[in-house]
């Protein structure tokens, strides 16, 4: 519902089925919407472009690096006179790592697709936040969207272990129906991860603005404490 999938959509999926992107976002997402799923056994940039063209795919779910490689192929093949008909392609469904706005702009310019950016974890089944269809390009290219329905999120200051003010960086934590029961046969790890009556610690650093849009900024485990100050690798 958040993505706006319909029965008329055709999603091309190069994502492996052992991964939640493949088996949940793609398979169950298309099943819930009654959409068509076009499954690829593995990712190949040129073959993906060929299938968007021949199968008239409207949606592609892929990691940012996949889209970067497809842009490279489009540019390489255009020099040899090969142009791809991507007129059916409308939605670039992506997440999983930091996405540079310039990369999203390239996808928009060269492939004609609007970005839908997600944040998720296997431990949360997996999607937590997502941009909305109709969001500005700046929001889609620069944030991971807002929490999905029936999902609580908060940003916690790792030094004070309390909810951080709007706009301040901290650990993203999630609560709701979507969180896992625990890690298999790892009770100590489970206790470290699920705290305060059900909040799941993502281990990811993020900020949230006044409208609820989240920006992923780094990993908490990579943070260095020096002289009482928190130092983040991204800085």
Class inferred from helices and paired strands: alpha/beta
How large is the radius of gyration?
19 Å
Strand proportion, as a percent range, falls in 25-35%
Low-confidence stretches: none
Oligomerization state of this entry? single chain
Total number of strands: 15
- Major sheet: 7 strands, mixed
- Main sheet: which strands, in order across? 2-1-3-4-5-6-7
Write the H/E string, N to C: EHEHEHEHEEHEEEEHEEEEE
Query: Rough shape?
Result: globular
Instruction: Summarize model confidence as the mean pLDDT.
Output: 92
Percent in helix: 25-40%
Total helices: the number is: 6
Cα-to-Cα separation, first versus last residue? 36 Å
């Amino acid at each position: 519902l958040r993505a706006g999938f319909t029965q008329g959509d055709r999603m091309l999926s190069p994502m492996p089925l052992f991964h939640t992107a493949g088996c949940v976002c793609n398979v169950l997402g298309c099943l819930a919407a009654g959409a068509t799923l076009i499954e690829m056994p593995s990712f190949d940039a040129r073959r993906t472009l060929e299938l968007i063209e021949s199968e008239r795919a409207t949606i592609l779910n892929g990691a940012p690096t996949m889209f970067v490689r497809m842009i490279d192929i489009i540019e390489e093949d255009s020099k040899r006179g090969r142009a791809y008909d991507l007129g059916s392609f409308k939605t670039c469904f992506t997440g999983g790592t930091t996405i540079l706005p310039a990369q999203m702009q390239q996808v928009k310019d060269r492939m004609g697709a609007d970005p839908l950016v997600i944040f998720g974890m296997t431990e949360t089944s997996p999607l937590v936040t997502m941009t909305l269809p109709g969001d500005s390009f700046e929001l889609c290219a620069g944030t991971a969207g807002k929490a999905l329905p029936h999902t609580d999120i908060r940003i916690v200051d790792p030094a004070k272990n309390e909810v951080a003010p709007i706009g301040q960086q901290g650990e993203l934590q999630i609560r709701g129906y979507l969180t896992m029961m625990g890690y298999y046969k790892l009770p100590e790890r489970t206790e470290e991860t699920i705290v305060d009556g059900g909040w799941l610690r993502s281990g990811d650093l993020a900020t949230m603005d006044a409208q609820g849009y989240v920006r992923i900024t780094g990993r908490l485990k990579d943070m260095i404490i020096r002289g009482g100050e928190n130092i983040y690798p991204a800085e």
